[in-house]
Structures are given as C-alpha cells and as structure tokens.
Specification:
By secondary structure, this protein is mainly alpha-helical. The protein has one domain. It contains 4 helices and 2 strands; from the N terminus they run ααββαα. A two-stranded antiparallel sheet has the order 1-2. A hairpin with a 2-residue loop joins strand 1 and strand 2. Helix 1 crosses helix 3. The protein is globular, with a radius of gyration of 13 Å.
Length: about 100
C-alpha cells in the first residue's frame, strides 16, 4: 500500500510547488507527465516512459494521476489553455533538485 501511494504523493508535491509559484496557471496531465519524466531522470523511478505525441508518456504516471485525483490530492479540469511553459517547469525542477542537494 505504501508503495502504491508514493507516485501520487510525488505528483501532489510537484503540482503543489507549481501552483504555489504560478497560482493563476493550470497544471494539466501533459505537464505532470513531463515533470515526472524529468523527476525520473534524476531519481531511481521506474515509470517506463515512451515517447508520445506531446512528449514522454507513462501509463503508470497516468494511473498515479488518477489515484491522486480520487484521493483529492489534485484536481484536474478540462481547461488546459493556461498551461505553464515547459521552460518554467524545467527551471523549477532544477531548483528543487539543487535545494535537495544543498540539504545533504
């Protein structure tokens, strides 16, 4: 059970960080997939990404997003027009990683 909640918890944390930094922007499923792809490249994640139409895609990440929604950790809606630019997402990931490294 603990392992099953790890993925949704990571997604919650990443979405929360983005929403705090960009409160007026939507964080959609495509951005979450890209975030998790970048997260996996810096960790020992096992999300099994493949390249898809809009970039990397993992069915595991899709399942984790659904679980996070059901648990009320994140809220998704259909309006994806106010998305966060990928460059900003990458910048935030690197800042979070740098912060983690400084803690060690």
């Amino acid at each position: 059970m603990k392992e099953m909640l790890k993925g949704p918890a990571i997604i919650y944390y990443l979405v929360k960080q983005l929403k705090e930094k960009y409160p007026d922007k939507q964080v959609g499923k495509t951005v979450i997939q890209k975030l998790m792809y970048l997260f996996e490249s810096k960790s020992n994640g096992d999300f099994e990404f493949t390249m898809y139409h809009y970039g990397p895609y993992s069915s595991k990440v899709g399942e984790y997003v659904n679980i996070a929604e059901v648990l009320g950790l994140i809220k998704q809606n259909g309006n994806q027009r106010k998305g966060i630019p990928l460059s900003r997402v990458i910048q935030l990931i690197f800042r979070m990683r740098l912060h983690q490294m400084k803690k060690r």
